[in-house]
Amino acid sequence: MTHTQLSEETTRALDDVVAAIEATDLPVAVLTGASGGMGREIAADLSKDRLVVAVGRDRGRLAEAAERAGAGGVVILPCELGELEAIDAVFSRLPRVDALVNAAAIAPRATVEDASVADWQDMLNTNVVAPAELTRVLLPRLRESEGIVVFIGSGASRAVTPYNVTYAASKHALQAVADGLRKQVADDGVRVSTVSPGPTDTPMVQWDDDYPKAAPRRLIEPETVARSVRHVIDAPADTQLAEVWVRPRVEA
């Protein structure tokens, strides 16, 4: 257990999360990136029959995600996953986890020529190191529950452009994390899946940069991705859907 000092706000939120988990018999799903367009829909869907621990940076947007879920079970946990040393201090306190959905990501565009070392570090820390570390911390709970880890990948890992190199590289790396983990925990009853959406109608595809704007002609709805995540989690116990590629019905 790390000795990282947590803020009073984080400590209070964590106490509320622990109490909610201890008070329910529902399966518990930890969802990162819960305040984003895709994450909100995943939270709303999973909360129909699970307690969702909604993790994100912005308390206000997390509260909106909880409201979006309506009467469903969502408890919010504001947390900056980019502060890697705090992940153990926060998440090792969770008494039970049945599913972990790693959906948090950033996607600023950059070419190899333009990307700085800081750009690479931010991208890889957020999109690869943080989900890998969170998964490591929660593995004991997932082994106890014979649960599932879902990584949200991206079609960008197979469709690289000159302008999304850092993002595409991070999603390639995340797929490697998932594949290696799946082999590691194969005998532990833990399932590992990657759900990789194509272009999805979220703010992530609304770029504010000087690169050419070649917006996809057809976008997937975030609700469709949420349904795909549920499909993976609810797969029969004797199987795992290792990779799910969610593409527009008609591709440009």
How would you describe this protein?
The structure is a single chain. The chain has 252 residues and is α/β, with parallel strands linked by helices. The protein has a single domain, classed as Rossmann fold. Helices cover 41% and strands 15% of the residues. It is built from seven helices and seven strands. The protein has helices spanning 8-23, 37-46, 59-68, 85-91, 117-145, 165-184, 222-233; strands at residues 28-32, 51-56, 73-78, 99-102, 148-152, 191-197, 243-246. It has a seven-stranded parallel β-sheet with strand order 3-2-1-4-5-6-7, sandwiched between helices. Helix 2 packs across helix 7 and helix 5 (117-145) runs parallel beside helix 6. The protein starts with 7 loop residues before the first helix and ends in a 6-residue tail after the last strand. The model has no long low-confidence stretch (mean pLDDT 90).
Compact description:
The chain has 252 residues and is α/β, with parallel strands linked by helices.
In the CATH scheme, the class would be: Alpha Beta
CATH-assigned homologous superfamily: NAD(P)-binding Rossmann-like Domain
Span between N and C termini? 49 Å
How would the global form be characterised?
globular
The structural class is: alpha/beta
Strand arrangement in the largest pleated sheet: 3-2-1-4-5-6-7
Number of helices: 7
Order of helices and strands: HEHEHEHEHEHEHE
What is the CATH topology descriptor? Rossmann fold
- Using the 3D structure, state the CATH architecture: 3-Layer(aba) Sandwich
How would you state the average pLDDT, rounded?
90
Question: What share of the residues lie within helices?
Answer: 40-55%
Portion in beta strands: 5-15%
Radius of gyration: 17 Å
Q: What is the total number of structural domains?
A: 1
Number of strands: 7
Q: Profile the largest sheet.
A: 7 strands, parallel
Instruction: State the low-pLDDT regions, or none.
Output: none
